[in-house]
TrEMBL record:
<feature type="signal peptide">
    <location>
        <begin position="1"/>
        <end position="23"/>
    </location>
</feature>
<protein>
    <submittedName>
        <fullName>Uncharacterized protein LOC100900716</fullName>
    </submittedName>
</protein>
<keyword id="KW-0378">Hydrolase</keyword>
<dbReference type="GO" id="GO:0016791">
    <property type="term" value="F:phosphatase activity"/>
</dbReference>
<keyword id="KW-0732">Signal</keyword>
<dbReference type="InterPro" id="IPR050645">
    <property type="entry name" value="Histidine_acid_phosphatase"/>
</dbReference>
<dbReference type="InterPro" id="IPR029033">
    <property type="entry name" value="His_PPase_superfam"/>
</dbReference>
Length: 406
């Protein structure tokens, strides 16, 4: 209970009139004009007025949505102690942070507003929820979907948040992200002459020139990729967690942001076909299950990683660097039933995720090059997704340890 409660206001006034209030009470009294809770309500109300709402195309009815999303804001996987201190991330390296958890809650509310009546008519039993084996993905789902799918009507039990069970495979057994031992490239000389407006705006003529600048600042070798995770990813995560970053990084942020978007693809380029192949099959399975199966779920959720989304974007004819999936980016495959004949089609919408200011980018429709809406049926798209990266050699992939599931 704060000083801004009505009875305490009266008591405080008596103290003030009697001249007995301390300096601390006077200081707190000045906050009573607009309390923190009132500030939050005002901000939430303002954001709600601007909330984006999904618009159904004329002649079609939304029937199911498959959402492949990235986890929320995390700590770096690795750090360079000369730049970033471990204690800056008390929940652990590679895990969701407190800011990330709060952002998950925010995005869950945005998704709820985005789907309007469709989500309001959905209960938790009409959802299918799966997470990457990485804990940060399950944590993100639990927080975001708890807000997106609050217990309404007959499912209400006096609690505002829906408990969410995100089904997660044991570490080492997720074919979508970790069962293939494919090494990252030790160097990327083909990027040296790469140009981009972000680089030129910061005074760099090529990507190689930017890398030389960064490695001179940090002591790494410019012809190796060892700087990517502790430096590029480390600074990137620090900024999104609202922590201070080196002045040179702030001044060259556009280039550093481009490096993150580019290297998140090229550093993991050897793995993308392996995990993209399985992610494609998962997506195809969810679409086909809705069309043909006995379980008529309204939502299917898969919580994974930036490279997971990049692999699908690339396979569907989109630029995975330009459309880099920021934290909690979400690729929505919206299943629409054509009113005239009941045929099912799929439209792709894309939330590109968080900005460094912790805003959430509006969703935009993206074109599926080989299967554009509305000329491509669900069956056709499912067939294409099930065969992306089909020529990948799985000899480096380990067998699943089924005993770990017990």
């Amino acid at each position: 209970m704060g000083f801004c409660q009505p009875k305490l206001r009266l008591i405080l006034s008596i103290f003030l009139l009697a001249g007995l209030a301390s300096a601390n009470i006077i200081k707190d009294a000045r906050l009573c004009d607009v309390s923190p809770s009132e500030n939050e309500i005002a901000k939430e109300s303002e954001r709600s007025r601007k909330a984006q709402v999904n618009v159904d195309p004329a002649g079609y009815t939304l029937s199911h949505v498959v959402i492949l999303s990235r986890h929320s804001i995390r700590a770096p996987q690795r750090i360079d102690n000369k730049l970033i201190k471990t204690e800056s991330f008390p929940l652990g390296l590679g895990y969701s942070t407190k800011i990330g958890n709060r952002f998950s809650v925010k995005v869950g509310k945005i998704w709820r507003e985005f789907y309007g009546d469709f989500v309001k008519n959905t209960n938790i039993r009409q959802t299918w929820i799966r997470s990457s084996s990485y804990i940060r993905c399950a944590e993100t789902q639990q927080l975001a979907l708890g807000q997106m799918l609050p217990p309404d009507d007959e499912f209400s039990f006096g609690h505002p948040t829906q408990p969410i069970i995100a089904i997660k495979l044991p570490i080492g057994n997720d074919v979508n992200v970790e069962t293939c031992d494919v090494p990252a490239p030790q160097s990327l000389p083909e990027l040296d002459e790469l140009t981009d407006p972000a680089l030129t705006s910061d005074g760099f003529s090529t990507f190689g020139e930017f890398v030389k600048f960064v490695t001179d600042k940090t002591g790494y070798l410019p012809n190796e990729t060892a700087y990517f995770e502790p430096i590029i990813d480390g600074i990137y995560c620090s900024k999104y967690n609202q922590l201070p970053i080196p002045r040179w990084a702030e001044e060259k942020w556009r280039s550093l942001d481009f490096a993150m978007r580019k290297l998140s693809h090229d550093y993991w380029i050897n793995e993308i076909p392996y995990y993209g192949n399985y992610i494609g099959k998962f997506l195809a399975s969810r679409l086909s299950t809705f069309a043909n199966g006995p379980y008529q779920h309204r939502f299917s959720f898969l919580s994974y990683h930036d490279t997971s989304i990049q692999a699908v974007l690339k396979a569907l004819g989109n630029d995975p660097v330009e459309l880099y999936p920021g934290f909690l980016a979400a690729l929505h495959f919206q299943v629409y039933r054509r009113d005239s004949d009941g045929e099912l089609f799929v439209r792709a919408m894309y939330h590109q995720g968080a900005t460094p200011e912790l805003e959430y980018r509006d969703a935009e429709e993206i074109r599926i090059e080989a299967c554009p809406f509305p000329s491509c049926t669900l069956k056709d798209l499912a067939s294409k997704l099930s065969h992306i990266y089909d020529d990948v050699d799985r000899s480096p992939c380990s067998r699943i340890d089924f005993t770990a599931l017990l």
